[in-house]
Design a protein that fits this description.
Layout (H helix, E strand, L loop, with lengths): L1 H19 L4 H8 L23 H13 L6 H9 L4 H6 L15 H13 L3
Helix pairs in contact: 1-6, 3-4, 4-6
């Protein structure tokens, strides 16, 4: 049962990432199935209808935290590190001493989760 729940949450995160992506939706969808395509020119993202913001600084913070924690933790732990939350998991592993600890305090957890999903959906 726990394995089924983990896979279901993974699929849900993938779906939410698809909804939040700034890339061509056709490219993302086909990429999920291992196919490649050029931008469709017809979806809301290709037509420039979706609002966009430069998240490159935040992406660097996320990738830095992922690298500093050893590239083996999920989004929740990485976000805890970024937010500077001294959870048991963070303290046991000494992640409160990382350079990225607390560097993301300017954003709330849902914003970081959205950014991580967008990075994953974008193949970063």
């Amino acid at each position: 049962m726990p394995e089924h729940k983990r896979r279901s949450h993974g699929r849900l995160d993938t779906l939410i990432g698809y909804c939040e992506t700034a890339q061509c939706r056709r490219q993302v969808l086909l990429g999920y199935f291992g196919e490649s395509a050029s931008p469709c020119g017809n979806c809301d993202n290709c037509l420039g209808q979706a609002p966009r913001a430069d998240g490159s600084a935040e992406a660097r913070l996320i990738l830095s935290a992922v690298a500093q924690t050893g590239e083996r933790f999920g989004a929740a732990h990485v976000i805890d590190v970024l937010l500077g939350h001294e959870t048991e998991k963070v303290l046991v592993r000494g992640h409160q001493r990382l350079a990225s600890f607390g560097t993301g305090a300017a954003h709330k957890r849902p914003a970081w989760l959205s950014l991580i999903r967008q990075l994953v959906a974008g193949g970063s």
